[in-house]
Amino acid sequence: MTEKNPLISIIIPAFNEADRVGNSLEKLTTFLNTRDEEFEVIVVDDASTDNTKAIAESFKDKIENLWVLRLEESPYAGKGLAVNKGVLAAKGDIVLFTDADFSTPIEEIDKLLEKINSGFDIAIGSRAADRSTVKKKQHILRELMGKTFNILVRTLTVKGIFDTQCGFKAFRVGTTRQLFENQKIFDFGFDVEILFLAQRQGLKIAEVPVLWFNDQRSTVHPIKDSYRMFLDLLKIRMYYARPNGSSLDKLCYIVYHYRTFWRFSIVGATNTVVDIGALYLLTRIVGMSAVSANLISVEIAIIWSFIWNNLWTFSERNVSDPLWKKFLVFQFVSLGGYVVNQISFLFFFKIFNVFDLFAKVLTVPITLVFNYVLNSRWTFRDERSGKASWLAYSIFILILFLLYFFLTKTLSVPFFGR
Asked: Which ranges carry the GtrA/DPMS transmembrane domain (predicted)?
């Protein structure tokens, strides 16, 4: 009994490729007619605004098992998402994705299949393994950008691979499908994430020199897209950081795992600048008294802080409360934070006789933690965590007021300070 040949799925991500996809599919048609293996071809139209989809579908009569998967516009749109959807929809035992312009000729597939058939889980085309295979080079700026990015990749994420970005890669589905199921990066860095996860899981990766002809019509921007690529590398390190890993892993774990607290701290720092800046403008420019200006500047700072904590710090949470309710709770918590600050200052300055400026410095982390904990568990509480204990928090803040009132009377200091 003869062993059945594996089905090979070819994934072609395409965004506004009307002027190139037809020529590529014509070459693919000729190539497939020379092959004995069974292929399926999936063109993933990534929300194109031209007639990419129609041109691709016109080849259904020429290419058996060709189908076009149309993606609608989304915040995650990009080549990484197109490849991901194509791979997860594929029925093949081996999947290969290739750029729509066929910068690497489809005939180079045999180099990758040879590696997969010899036991590798992933075979990736490479322009760096043998520079003589690059038949048409990129502009010097883009080539420099690529080399710099590859150095960062090897330093921060994927070790021992010199070209992670060549758009010509093959995967053994049985061992790699999970990589795409767990994928989180859908921008430029999606290749790096897949290879990073593969190395973490001990999968075998082969880097294979392939022919490559640069297409001058590439839309990659050397400055803007370099920045996005670097951000993707940082995201990968953050997403998959381990608390018991390397020093870099531990640092990334702390930064990412406690990211809402660090964001809250950053907003708090800017909040101080806004408070002082508003006070300066109101007293020096507008001519208001310091007491009246201070009340307004504090409120401006609270509004500033609320806006950024709502839009950024806790943006990943599902908070069902309306905006007005969150703002009122935030105001109440901020008032409680003021009382905590005053109580802490009185303890350090009056009871423990700490120098006043140093006592003020010591109150900052205490107030920060108080505001963060209550806002995290009440104002911006994720609805998946259940209802907030608003009554308990309210009583707690009222008790703080009573404690502060008691301290001011006992220590004979004004309730609102001087």
From this structure: 263-353
